[in-house]
Amino acid sequence: MYNGAATGTLTNTGTISGGNGLSNGSSIGSLDNSALIRGTASYGLYSTGSINALVNSGTIAGVTDGVVNDYNAILTGGTNSGLIVANNGLTNNGTLGSFVNGGVVSGTTQYGIFSNGTLGTLTNSGTVQGLDTGLFLATTGTVSNLAAVGSDIQALGGALIARVGIGHDHVAADAGVRSPG
Predict the structure, then answer these.
(1) Which of 77, 84, 134, 165 would staple 151 via disulfide (CB 3.0–4.6 Å)?
(2) Which of 63-72, 112-121, 158-167 has the highest mean pLDDT?
(3) Cα dihedral across residues 163, 168, 174, 178: positive or negative
(4) Kind plus residue range of the DSSP H or E element containing 57
(5) Confidence of residue 78 (pLDDT cuts 50, 70, 90)
């Protein structure tokens, strides 16, 4: 499915499926998925436009990426209580204001969450897992609660501010932050 015009609310309670499950080239006020968005060739959800609110309580699945917020794209706020899964679970190359994960974000061959764009706040009370790396940050931003992040954590290009468990303020000492190089 391709969205090329401004859309107020898009609600999916069935199945959206295609090479890219849902491609957004314009703007979506609210995208609410409680069922299945599936990309059979590339991406589950691919956006080069803007999405004000993404609420996923279902499944967003792709081959290469579950969710891609691409260059110059803006995802103001995202909430996941379901499953986002592909080789890379969530890829942010644009601007991601906030993302709250209480579900599962899974990268079956690489990263659970990869951010190379602007990241506001990432809060995790669920599971972020990647075969290679659970959370890979090549940007700066604020990350809350890394206790449930699987694999190791990589941070490049700036500070990683997080709390891992009660009374711990330094991720490097507690969560194995590494900078590849």
Answers:
(1) 134
(2) 63-72
(3) positive
(4) none
(5) very high
Tokens coding 101: 């994960």
> Does residue 181 sit in helix, strand or coil?
coil
User: For residue 141, what are the β-bridge partners?
Assistant: 160
How many Å apart are CA 38 and CA 66, to the nearest integer? Answer: 8
In 3D, which of 53, 52, 13 has the Cα closest to residue 36? 13
Name the residue with tokens 């990432």: 122
pLDDT band (50, 70, 90) for residue 137? confident
| Residue-level pLDDT at 11 | 97
At 10, list the tokens: 């898009």
Q: In what order do the strands lie in the sheet with 74-80?
A: 7-12, 27-33, 50-56, 74-80, 95-101, 118-124, 141-144, 160-161
Rounded distance, CA 125 to CA 103, Å? 8
Q: Is 138 helix (H, G, I), strand (E, B) or coil?
A: coil
Residue 171 three-state SS: helix
- Residue 58: what residue type? G
Per this entry, what is the length of the chain?
A: 181
